[in-house]
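Budget justification note: compute hours in this period were largely spent on complex prediction jobs such as the one shown. Inputs:
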Amino acid sequence: MTAPLLSARGVVAGYAAADMILKGVDLDVHPGEVVAIIGPNGAGKSTLLKAIAGILVPSAGSITLDGAAIAGHPPREIAARGIAFVPQEQNVFPTMSVRENLEMGGFIQPKETPRRIEAIFARFPILAEKRRQAARTLSGGQRQMLAMAMALMVEPRVLLLDEPSAGLSPVAAEALFDTIRGINAEGTAIAMVEQNALEALSIARRGVILVDGRNARTGEAAALASDPEVRRIFLGG
Amino acid sequence: MLSHVIEELPQLLVNGLVAGTILALPAIGFTAIYAVLRFPNFSIASHATMGAYAGYVANVWFGLPVIPSLLLAFIIPALSGVACDEVVMKPLRRTGPLTAAIAAVALTIALENVIRFFFGNDLRGYDLPVWRDWRIDLGFAFLRVGPQQVENAAISIAVMAAVFLFLAFTRTGKMMRAVADNPMLAGIKGINADTVARLGSFMGMGLVGVGGMLLGLDTSIDPLTGFRAVLSVFAAAVVGGLGSIPGAVVGAAVVGVGEELSILILDASYRTAVGFIAILVVLIFRPRGILGERAY
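Corresponding output:
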């Protein structure tokens, strides 16, 4: 296998010094692959993505992109290096129009913005239809679509998705997973935290199971999905 | 009594709308700073006074007309706003909005006394052409409108239009709105929060300074010019929806007209109570303000 594009080693991070949520997590994302990060509530899945995106500064461990250290760098620098993060909630600018949200998505590459907005509108016709509407008026599914489209505005090398299907209807969630497959098919590496673990493992090449801030299992997604113990504990089957 | 009210009403409404239009500028400045920096920066009081005195220096000492003087009334408080934020407020903002608000009150007292040190306590007036008021016969009442009032309102409306165009159509304006909407997401998208904080302080305090000079053009100036207006400005921002720029305009109109109409039933010395009453009513019935917080 090729060298990982994104690599986290022994990451310790949290919101208070006395209560670290991540207690030494490892994660590798190779070029072009989808990695599903699953686990029970409070395992540290979202915290891991926040540490990679620069929202949280790890107190120990290393995070590298293409071998260059990025841990502790400000979010804007990490974004400029090619990592796009889509938070679970509050992932759009509610009072700004759909088009303005896309402009802000491409903020670090302003020359490319007009061309990419047209490409996004061609890919997501519903966003083109609603281009002048404020993002707060969109449905949950449309808002997630916009959040993802904003991330695509910089043609990221690694896309970090935090619970993209949370709060969506089954139909909207299925459409969203199709979109994620499409983005990955174009070569974008994706690290995805998802409550719908079976669906996440079906998209992913590899899976990482976190429990209490540590790696519990790591392996091929298909193998994890069919492992009886994993199914019993984490997949409800 | 009723005929008195009917006779007085048009004049009070006009006065209130003009006052509201002028009040809108510092209210926009205050709310813009709140939207970006997330604390009520009460040093707008001394920055409004600073704008009034900067305009006075340009107009009276250097003999410049009103419009170029307004440029100085914008620039000096804008630069002071950035400097004060960097040196005084920035280290304190991390400790929370309450600490920052208290520090801003201390800052405004300090700046006010610096102005007093250089200019003294005397009332000062601008060097303005003497115009006769227009008298308009409405049939049931006479309306008196001062050309200076109209000019002040027109300047205020032009500045507001420029602010709206800046926020709606420029990359920098959109960047500021993005930070006001969702600072964490703005950071993820590569927007530098420090740059936006400086821009917010610059634009906000500049508008406050222009508002201070417009207030002075209507009457006279002294070191308490801004302090006397700060409650009305705060009330306008809260009534419209703290953090909302259109809200600040609506709130300023409500407070401006409300203060004038209060004269019908109260002694004029109680008019500042209207600001308190407006805040009270809004907090009871619509806690997020007329247009809701952080709406553009």
